[in-house]
Design brief:
CATH superfamily of the largest domain: HUPs
CATH architecture of the largest domain: 3-Layer(aba) Sandwich
Structural class: alpha/beta
Distance between the termini: 36 Å
Shape: globular
CATH class of the largest domain: Alpha Beta
Number of domains: 2
Largest sheet: 6 strands, parallel
Number of helices: 10
Helix content: 25-40%
Strand content: 15-25%
Length: 271
């Protein structure tokens, strides 16, 4: 595994290859990241992983500061996985140039997480756009846990006619059901239990909605989640996964999207 900390050296290395399969991360690697990397390694291209905690996608400085970081542990894991390249850029390396493509921010960026985290998706697309320009990956591997982010990145790539192809990968879950996330590292054992209970409650609800959609009463469900231990609910909505529009009637292509807090830790998921 070769480690790069500046884009120019990395670009020279990439020119020697047929291309790369890119797995962007902010570190705090978990089973979800491992799954993306294993999928990437199946491709005919070199696997490139990045670790960069992007300050521009955090709407609260405290959230940026508390984001889990353990680069030494991450590097050790990536060596075991035998990836080809690791890119750990500085802020200047990423933001010290003007990209050719302007970001395309679809109107759906104002929904769900976009409504509660102003500037978040603009920050995400900004950094992804810059990574694409630096690396020019053949494939980009992204998980469905951050579905809204995945949808918006796909829209940006489509609108700007970028040649990189997005590979959607299923959400990987902990043994207790909750989606793997770097933020889980900030949860205590008792808080993990709360998150698990919330997931199973909503998972059971989603099954019941197939037979009786009138059970979807947001205020009641939010009260149930508070009783289970959530401190605050940002949103709880059913969206069509193709159009990313809120549904009025149940159909086969919809997921239940939700975001909530356990103390200061914000968790998101979709079922």
């Amino acid at each position: 595994m070769k480690i790069f900390k500046d884009k120019h050296t990395l670009q020279k290395e990439i020119l020697k290859t047929k291309g790369t399969s890119f797995v962007p991360t902010m570190g705090g690697l978990h089973k979800g990241h491992i799954s993306l990397i294993k999928q990437s390694k199946k491709s005919k291209f070199k696997t490139l992983v990045s670790i960069f905690v992007n300050p521009k996608q955090f709407n609260k400085k405290s959230d940026f500061r508390s984001y889990p970081r353990n680069t030494k542990k991450d590097i050790k894991l990536l060596k075991k996985l035998k990836i080809d390249y690791l890119y750990i850029p500085t802020f200047k390396d990423i933001y010290g140039f003007r990209p050719k493509n302007k970001i395309f921010l679809d109107k759906s960026s104002k929904k769900l997480c976009g409504k509660f985290r102003k500037g978040h998706f603009e920050g995400v697309l900004n950094v992804v756009n810059r990574f694409i320009e630096i690396i020019k990956p053949r494939y980009i591997f992204l998980g469905k846990k951050d579905y809204q982010q995945l949808f918006l990145i796909k829209k940006h790539i489509e609108k700007r006619k970028i040649k990189s192809k997005i590979i959607e990968c299923k959400t990987i879950r902990e043994n207790n059901g909750i989606a793997c996330s770097s933020r889980n590292l900030n949860l205590s054992k008792s808080q993990m239990k709360i998150a698990s209970n919330i997931f199973h409650h909503l998972s059971n609800l989603k099954k019941k909605l197939k037979k009786n959609y009138s059970l979807f009463k947001i205020n009641k469900i939010k009260k149930d989640l508070i009783k289970l231990g959530a401190n605050k609910i940002d949103y709880l909505e059913n969206y069509n996964t193709k159009s990313f529009k809120k549904i009025k009637k149940p159909n086969k292509k919809y997921n239940l999207f939700f975001a909530y807090y356990i103390k200061k830790v914000r968790l998101i998921d979709n079922i």
